[in-house]
């Protein structure tokens, strides 16, 4: 059985305990090229429910024997430019505190990696920094996604792709997320549920939950996170399918929960059937790809998409 820890408390203390219960230090102790991938998709503070709390990252770094070998890598897919989300969430402090390196993956080198048994894409472009890591830690946020249903540690890897690739993946969610994780599956996952988010993945609708989840099995982790938000994980295609093809355990009955029981922390998160921002982007990208104009028009898409998002938000 896969093990998932669910711990109540403050961000730092709860993360430390969640990592200890899942034997995180044993997995990471001999790794030389560790990458932590937080969720910083929008320029918002973590208490808004959308971005990863810096104290969760601090706890992870304190459990890594040589944190100076760690890279923190993220590339916003939304309106944020360069390191805006790093600044808002004080991630720059980590460079001085731990000697880590911060990388904006939107400006990284990319590798075009073939996809084995593709559902959508024959290859996916992904950050060289992330792809070449020997231990990838996906630190997601506990939140609803308007199209994928939930945002978990598997979907979080989208931030390692260039923006053009991100929008392609987003247009074909949820099947494209299987292709993405076939290319690079996280080695360990943590989900920040101190302040979670319902309804949307980028616009703030915070829910104070006060929990941290962790596991070596990111499929099992996302499965438990879905249940906690009141979503049946069997209805979340990319979690169900990842379990079916052996990426991890997606059967809640075969997952050992350590710490809090699901029923003591679960909360029925609000969702909505249509999201003007996400669904309009999905339709636009699919249409442009079908007529062969996507690559040519991508820069115009991004600038117009940013203007639309600002209006909608």
Q: Layout of helices and strands, plus pairs?
A:
Blueprint: E1 2-8, H1 11-21, H2 24-28, E2 34-38, H3 54-62, E3 70-74, H4 84-88, H5 93-98, E4 101-104, E5 110-114, E6 123-127, H6 128-131, E7 135-145, E8 149-151, H7 163-171, H8 175-183, E9 188-197, E10 206-215, H9 218-228, H10 237-244, E11 255-259, H11 262-265, H12 276-290, H13 294-312
Parallel strand pairs: 1-11, 2-3, 2-7, 3-4, 7-9
Antiparallel strand pairs: 1-10, 5-6, 7-8, 9-10
Helix pairs in contact: 1-3, 7-12, 8-10, 9-10, 12-13
Shape assignment: globular
Q: How far apart are the first and last residues' alpha carbons, in Å?
A: 42 Å
Q: How many strands, what sense, and barrel or not for the largest sheet? A: 9 strands, mixed
Could you state the order of secondary-structure elements as H and E?
A: EHHEHEHHEEEHEEHHEEHHEHHH
Q: Determine the fraction of residues in helical runs and give it as a percent range.
A: 25-40%
The secondary-structure class comes to alpha/beta
- The average pLDDT value, as a whole number, equals 92
Q: How many independent structural domains?
A: 1
Uncertain segments of ≥5 residues (pLDDT<50)?
none
Q: What is the name of the CATH superfamily?
A: LarA, N-terminal domain
The CATH topology:
Rossmann fold
Q: How many beta strands in the DSSP annotation?
A: 11
Gyration radius from CA atoms, angstroms: 18 Å
């Amino acid at each position: 059985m896969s093990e998932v820890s669910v711990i109540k408390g403050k961000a730092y203390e709860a993360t430390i305990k969640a990592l200890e219960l899942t034997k995180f230090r044993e997995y990471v102790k001999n790794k030389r090229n560790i990458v932590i991938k937080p969720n910083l998709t929008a320029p918002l503070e973590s208490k808004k429910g959308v971005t990863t709390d810096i104290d969760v990252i601090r706890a992870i770094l304190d459990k890594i024997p040589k944190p100076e070998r760690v890279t923190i890598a993220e590339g916003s897919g939304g309106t944020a430019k360069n390191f805006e989300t790093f600044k808002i969430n004080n991630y720059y402090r980590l460079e001085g505190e731990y000697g880590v390196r911060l990388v904006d993956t939107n400006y990284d080198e990319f590798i075009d990696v073939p996809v084995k048994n593709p559902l959508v894409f024959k290859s996916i472009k992904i950050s060289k920094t992330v792809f070449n890591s020997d231990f990838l830690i996906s630190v997601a946020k506990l939140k609803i996604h308007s199209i994928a249903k939930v945002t978990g540690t598997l979907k979080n890897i989208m931030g390692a792709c260039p923006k053009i690739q991100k929008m392609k993946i987003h247009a074909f969610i949820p099947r494209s997320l299987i292709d993405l994780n076939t290319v690079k599956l996280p080695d360990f996952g943590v989900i920040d549920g101190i302040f979670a988010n319902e309804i949307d993945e980028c616009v703030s609708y915070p829910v104070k939950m006060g929990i941290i989840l962790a596991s070596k099995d990111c499929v099992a982790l996302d499965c438990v996170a879905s249940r906690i938000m009141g979503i049946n994980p069997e209805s979340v295609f990319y979690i169900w399918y990842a379990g079916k093809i052996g990426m991890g355990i997606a059967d809640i009955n075969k997952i050992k929960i350590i710490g809090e029981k699901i029923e003591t922390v679960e909360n029925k998160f609000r969702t909505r059937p249509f999201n003007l921002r996400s669904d309009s982007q999905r339709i636009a990208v699919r249409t442009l790809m079908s007529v062969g104009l996507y690559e040519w028009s991508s820069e115009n898409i991004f600038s117009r998409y940013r203007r639309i998002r600002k209006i909608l938000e």
